[in-house]
Amino acid sequence: MTQEKRKRTKRILICILVALILLFIDQVTKIFAQVYLAGREIDLIPEWVWLTYTLNDSIAFGIGNGNNVFMTVIMVVTPIVSALFVVLSLTVFKKNFPAQLSLFCIASGAVGNFIDRLFITDLADKPAVRDFIGLRFFNVCNFADFCITIGAVALIFILLFIGPSAAFPIKKKWREEQKRQEKESEHAKA
């Protein structure tokens, strides 16, 4: 095995470990909330951040609330998109470790909420997600939602600014490498 393959294998193993740790934290915090927060509300930062327990039969910001067809599509698409993120990290982003971590972070959050929808139902017997972190401007969410959001924001930042393949590389050496690659590509076409 070459040095580069070992490096890529190590990176993927780190991504898998991080994703499993995030998934574990998500499930443990949801169990904790279900057991200890049902019927309670604990202010962490009054009027801004609180802990509570609720079941959510929609996705972020109430999208899909009451729409059974939409939520069925979400149930089908989630594992496919999560698998696609893993494939992207192994192919398109195989040399971009920060992007790989971001994709695995998003996938772990998606899988965490997917697990809930498989095994948790609300009072109307609809698949639901256990939410427990109340935020003033975002209603109630969970750890998996943070994984998805932080992973997505990080991925956008990485694609825009980090590395020689970024749209707007912030380091001079990345910009120079990008120009070198563009010249090599032009010479290969000629």
Number of domains: 1
Helix content: 55-70%
Poorly predicted runs are none
Anisotropy-based shape: elongated
Radius of gyration: 20 Å
**Separation of the first and last Cα atoms:** 34 Å
Written as H for each helix and E for each strand, in order along the chain, the element string is HEEHHEEHH
The chain-level structural class is: alpha+beta
Q: Could you describe the largest sheet, including whether it forms a barrel?
A: 4 strands, antiparallel
Tally of individual helices: 5
Strand content: 5-15%
Mean pLDDT, all residues: 90
Strands, count: 4
Arrangement of strands in the largest sheet: 1-2-3-4
Description of the structure:
The structure is a single chain. This protein is of the alpha+beta class. The protein has one domain (3-189). 62% of the residues lie in helices and 12% in strands. The protein is built from five helices and four strands, in the order H-E-E-H-H-E-E-H-H.
Task: Pick out its properties.
12% strand, 190 residues, elongated, single chain, alpha+beta
Mind sketching the topology for me?
Elements: H1 3-36, E1 42-45, E2 49-56, H2 68-90, H3 97-119, E3 129-135, E4 139-141, H4 143-161, H5 172-189
Helix pairs in contact: 1-3, 2-3, 3-4
In brief:
The chain has 190 residues and is α+β, with helices and mostly antiparallel strands. The protein contains 5 helices and 4 strands; from the N terminus they run αββααββαα.
